[in-house]
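Question: Send over one sample?
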Amino acid sequence: METNDRKSKRSSRAFWIVLIGLTAVAISILTGMAGYALGLSAGSAEVVTEQVPVEVQVEVTREVLVTPEIPPQVPTAPPVLPDAGGNGETASAASDVFDSALFDEVWTRIKQDFDGAMPDDQDLIYGAIEGSLGALDDRFTSFIRPEVAARLSEDMEGAVSGIGAFVNENEEGFFEIVAPIDGQPAMTAGLLPGDIVVAVDGESVTGLSFNEVILLVRGPSGTDVHLTISRADEPKLLEFTITRATFDVPVVESDMLDGDIAYVRLLDFSRNADVKLLAALDELLAQNPRGLILDLRNNPGGFLDQSISIGDIFLPQGVVVYERNRSGLDQTFRADNGDIAETIPLVVLVNEASASAAEIVAGAIQDNGRGTLIGATTFGKGSVQTVHTLSDGSELRVTIARWYTPDNHNIDEAGITPDIEVESPLIIGEDDDPQIQRAVEFLQTGQ
């Protein structure tokens, strides 16, 4: 195995990755989340809902929602919540254990004694919900306020208005640029992967939630936003004024490289990503390439059903992923024979921002021996979330299961280690991209 030592800066939010378009890619939660797209893109992760009293969707990462395999329903038995050590305890219904007397006592005192502006009742309720969920110690179980949920829903429609970058909340809780989107304002302005947003329009983001920062960065096309950026190895803060734009977030990019190598990049696992990928593969494979590169770098994830469908494109047969929980769910998703890319020599590129659904596909290809993974260890989101749309338009995202690769690995926090490790470039897709160069070499030589 080849290795290039690298300090990898692991991001940790999955909702998984947001298009700073900001395209909030809800797929992070799908397969786990890896981030949002700040277009803040109005076309990343979205919630697919059914017209039922409570809408439910399943996410596998940082931030993409998927239509549930099981019809939405209220559990008839209390769920089992795993603790940090992997042991489960049965949770009692909130109505059986929650005593509001102490809460009322605290807020009676606050209203009497607090020397400052009081929140309105709605903000108080939202804050209480958010605080209580924090006690679960699960960053993917979260409450999304109505205005943010509405933006995420808009993002699923594909049109995005924002600066054009993938972002997420890193392990330190900072708002981090994962990758500017090619040709969009963030890239033109000079933002780089790893940049940390410390202020928006002159106002510090300290103390603001990830979603609150998203709302500040996003805005109508043609308007300016001023970002104050902290960049590694830069002694001073950097200032950028960026004009927001509306654009369609690309899902698939493809090309024929020198040496008759086909190249296709999948940017997320949003709705109909499989159809778009198949169309690109049809054109590439018609040119009889000697090998294929599937680029999943900076892919935050998406819908669970899309990860299964796309995995099936490359796998002749076998397990794509297992989904399990402590309440007895044990579901196996399999690939079937007959798809167009099941036999061509295959390399899959991954990096630190490959998350959720992207990790499901990469893990399935690696464990089934179908192709070779090249790049850097992936994000590491191995949980599944259900998304409930609540009565006021807010959303509740709840971790309901864990997913496992065909070899029965849960990669939560650990990620997937590629077969050949190559340091990630600052900007992917350039002519001197070392990971692409290594993939081409491998397909030409087998080594």
In short: The first strand starts at residue 18 and ends at 21. The longest helix spans residues 121-134. Residues 252-445 form a domain with the 2-enoyl-CoA Hydratase; Chain A, domain 1 fold (CATH 3.90.226.10).
